[in-house]
Amino acid sequence: MKKYAIYGLSALLSVAFVACDNYEEPNPLPQINEQGSILDAAQVSLESTIDAPTYDLAALNEAGELIALANIAAPNLGDYYGYAAVVEMSNNGFAKAVEVASTIRQNNEEGTSYSIMISPAALQEAYYANVSKGPKAKDVQFRYALYTVSNGANGTQRARIGGEDNVYGPFTMNVTPYPSTLVIEDNYYLVGTACDWTVSAAIKLNHSDLSPYDDPVFSAKFDVYEGWWWKILPESTVLTGDWVSAPNAQYGVEINGDESLAGVLVAQTADAEPQAGCLNVSGPYLLTINMEDLTYSFDLAIECLYTPGGSNGWSQTASQTLVTNDYSNYFGFAHLNGEFKFTSAPDWDHINYGLGEEEGKLSTDGGAGNINAGADGLYYCTVNIASLSYALTPITTIGVIGDATPNGWDASTALTPSEDFLVWTGTVTFGAGEYKFRCNDAWDVNLGGPTDALEFNGDNIPAPAAGTYTVTLDLSTYPYTCTVK
Prior knowledge:
By secondary structure, the protein is mostly beta strands. A hairpin with a 7-residue loop joins strand 6 (81-90) and strand 7. It is globular and about 80 Å long.
């Protein structure tokens, strides 16, 4: 009897093929128990069948075609046993992975050849949610865990072939996702009073390294004064050097001369009414636009954040400051002990950031509670004032690492903190080469660059002449510095 079937299991198993035409699946799904493998890894082989230059998901979906990811050669397990696959996808080396719904198809009557299949729609859903919302083709990686599955009156049991750590892959696929109905250009510019309304001199807004579909927020700081007019231009308009009569060639406000510091952007052409915004405030302001939501806001640009709290007698001037390079994200070290707050000025008369509705969230409500850092120590702090979010990373170790140090790039030479955790000192024997400072014996938080102005993720530091030195790292004020004597 010829047996071709697609058999669905839960998301836990992804999908399994069962070689029994008359078996009826219990309802609801039975409990699934891990068992010892009935096969050795050597009895099963998997070969990737990803062979197209790119997989156009919209075209494949329109044609009603499934995508064959891999072929499996494995023994026939009989009528009451089958195979299952869990398919994981990533675009960052599996630092983060997502499971993609799949099926297993039996390819021959002997029950010894199978294929792992996924639908274009399932891949698009996973891609959009976890890789990118943009329409550009990107590489993704797949890896697979294979299982044997038994089905019977006592429930469904499974066993991972090759053991719990055995995976097949990774294999790379170039994916062209569905076309996006939303068009976001790579760059946007401000035109108006700041550039004398000259399109070719429009001022470029800052943006992250992400695709604009994954990060549609653009921003820049401007010195604003009363009677300050503005509009937004996409890069396609700026490249022409002149005003363009085309849809979405410029973005203004709904009513010409609107003085609002926040509102909705309205797409316009050069032939439309001016509809430019006009601010009547003075000072440094951060313009932030979201080209997915078509919103804008002007917020007072904050040069740094202070960290008054229990470690410094609730004094801003005695606290450490967090710095920024985009007036949205702030970062830096702070000595914290228990409760504290972030403030926008060295006093309590401006913006105070307290605890929001949950840990990791901030509130600018004057009555907001204090944030609790926990134990007395050094913390690496990050704050996003646009999303009102924060994160605190306890720093338990700081060390010197590099090919110029005794342990090379494999392990740090530890430094010892001062009582307030702001100055770290140690004896290091240097040879030829370079070094850096890293925290918690990991690379998430590290310092390099010039010794009189250390930078996060900065360049390697050239070592002094060979010898034994006292190394002092000072984190009490920014910029951070180190001395080697």
